[in-house]
Write a structure and sequence with these properties.
Layout: E1 2-3, E2 9-13, E3 18-21, E4 27-36, E5 45-52, E6 62-65, E7 67-69, E8 72-81, E9 83-92, E10 98-117, H1 119-122, E11 125-126, E12 137-140, E13 146-148, H2 172-182, E14 185-187, H3 190-201, E15 205-209, H4 232-242, E16 249-253, H5 262-266, H6 268-282, E17 290-293, H7 308-318, E18 325-328, H8 343-362, E19 372-378, E20 385-391, E21 397-398, E22 406-410, E23 413-414, E24 417-423, E25 426-434, E26 443-446, E27 457-458, E28 467-470
Parallel strand pairs: 3-10, 10-15, 10-16, 12-15, 16-17, 17-18
Antiparallel strand pairs: 1-2, 2-4, 4-8, 5-6, 5-9, 7-8, 9-10, 11-14, 12-13, 19-20, 20-25, 21-27, 22-23, 22-26, 24-25, 26-28
Helix pairs in contact: 3-8, 6-7
Length: 471
């Protein structure tokens, strides 16, 4: 909100460095609201001019007159083409004198992406070497204010909705002030993702941050819609409405908390599917693309997250259960502590999400979704040479030899592996050579355990996901 120096006029919206989601044809409506706190509003004529940023020619601008209703003056720019604009608001009195003039920049029509889940989407990387901000990538912060996206994107004690507060209301102001002074963690994937999407789509990018660390899938249940800002789901839907009611896609990274409890893990897949269906229904976007991350690694004791691999396999399979859904693998990325991705890894993950968004949101066939297992089989009678064929690979797999992360088991016991490399004649096929013949009923794993060493990626830097295959 901007106010003139006398406190008479307040421009409630739009905000500087904001983004409205464009429709399929590339247009959006931009509402304007001006509050007049004193004076005779019936004698005012209020003009609004929306101009492409950097342009001054009158034939490039949109112009409207605000309708006066009491102390509120409102109007809507309809059908604004995707791009970045400056807004000038001028109020004239009955004598034609300009009594108020205000100009704000960064009024964007482009793509808004919803970021939700828990801490690895929130971003807790060290605030060293963070992604450089861009005026083209904006964030709708938790306090319901737009601004240029700059890490950290999450400031919970400044949030408008109480579900995000980490201290009681009467301690919130002091906690928020101290956090601004002393915070050292909070780098995330959002800005890297946003910059990659801006480079691709050539329009302003908005990040709608709704993630909250330590949350499980039950806490995101859509039953919380009626609770509004007192629930994660209700807060998320309220904030979607606050930015115009539509988003381009949802990016999701969550599941660690559910892996800590067998009962929660048993219903994780169905809860995730239900969340996707509810979000699509309640946002009025039945084909909303959902891009999510498969869990990474855990460096602590195994009994803390007993269902870790189970959640990873659920995430692997959800992609095939619903339309307009795809995931990125994170298993090869490095952590900054026992469970959180480090800043360099988050920047890389943001770019991976962007490649997925190009395909899922824009039907861009230039990139595949990333390596997925097509089939596994023994190529010899002795059952010592196992071949794993991959599909959806960009430019072949790499490295060509010394591949890590594969494990062949029988009855839970690992079989000795002598060699693991790419097929020299087909860079989409991996060859695993065993020391001894494999009995019937073996299982092939990639990325099993809590901290596996995995290094197989494709030419677009999309990693092979954790998977299990029975042979």
């Amino acid at each position: 909100m901007t106010m003139d120096k006398n406190g008479v006029f307040q421009l409630e919206y739009p905000h500087s460095y904001s983004v409205r989601q464009r429709d399929e044809k590339g247009y959006a409506d931009i509402p304007v609201k001006l509050q007049v706190s004193q004076g005779e509003t019936r004698q005012l004529s209020i003009q609004c001019h929306l101009r492409p940023f950097g342009h001054k020619e009158a034939d490039c601008e949109y112009t409207i007159l605000l309708q006066v209703d009491g102390n509120s003056c409102e109007g809507v720019f309809q059908g604004v083409l995707a791009g970045d604009y400056s807004l000038e608001v001028i109020a004239y009195n009955a004598g034609g004198e300009a009594v108020y003039r205000n100009q704000i920049n960064g009024i964007g029509v482009g793509d808004v992406y919803l970021l939700a889940g828990q801490s690895n989407m929130e971003g807790v990387g060290k605030l060293l070497g963070t992604e450089r901000p861009s005026q083209w990538v904006r964030c709708f912060y938790l306090d319901d204010q737009w601004g240029i996206a700059k890490d950290p994107l999450c400031w919970f004690n400044e949030a408008s909705d109480s579900v995000h507060w980490r201290v009681p209301k009467n301690q919130k102001e002091e906690a928020a002030r101290n956090e601004r002074l002393f915070r050292e963690f909070g780098a995330g994937l959002g800005i890297s993702f946003g910059k990659a999407m801006k480079e691709y789509s050539k329009v302003p990018i908005g990040l709608l941050m709704c993630a909250h660390g330590g949350t499980d899938m039950e806490q995101w249940d859509s039953v919380g819609l009626s609770d509004g800002g007192r629930s994660l789901y209700g807060s998320m839907l309220r904030r979607v409405s606050a930015v115009g009611g539509k988003v381009k896609a949802c990016l999701w990274y969550q599941g660690e908390s559910d892996a800590a409890d067998w009962d929660k893990a048993a219903v994780y897949k169905q809860r995730f599917i239900s969340l996707i269906e509810a979000l699509r229904r309640d946002s009025g976007q039945p084909e909303l693309p959902i891009l999510y991350a498969q869990l990474n690694t855990w460096l602590g004791e195994g009994d803390v997250f007993p269902a870790w691999n189970g959640i990873q396999l659920d995430q692997l399979h959800i992609e095939g259960d619903l339309p307009h859904v795809a995931f990125v693998s994170t298993i090869d990325l490095s952590l900054s502590d026992a469970i959180h991705l480090g800043t360099p890894a988050l920047k890389k993950l943001g770019k991976r999400f962007a490649l997925l968004a190009r395909r899922l949101c824009f039907q861009d066939a230039a990139y595949e979704r990333g390596p997925r297992v097509r089939r596994c089989f023994f190529a010899d009678r002795e059952r010592t040479e196992l071949r794993i064929e991959f599909e959806h690979v960009n430019g072949g797999l790499r490295p060509s030899k010394d591949l890590r992360g594969f494990r062949v088991e029988h009855g839970g016991a690992a079989l000795p592996v002598m060699e693991c490399r790419l097929d020299q004649s087909n860079a989409n096929t991996v060859i695993v050579k065993l020391k001894e013949s494999a009995p019937a009923g073996v299982e092939l794993w990639y990325g099993k355990g809590f901290n596996p060493v995995c290094n197989l990626r494709d030419g677009a830097d999309l990693a092979v996901p954790v998977f299990r295959y029975s042979i």
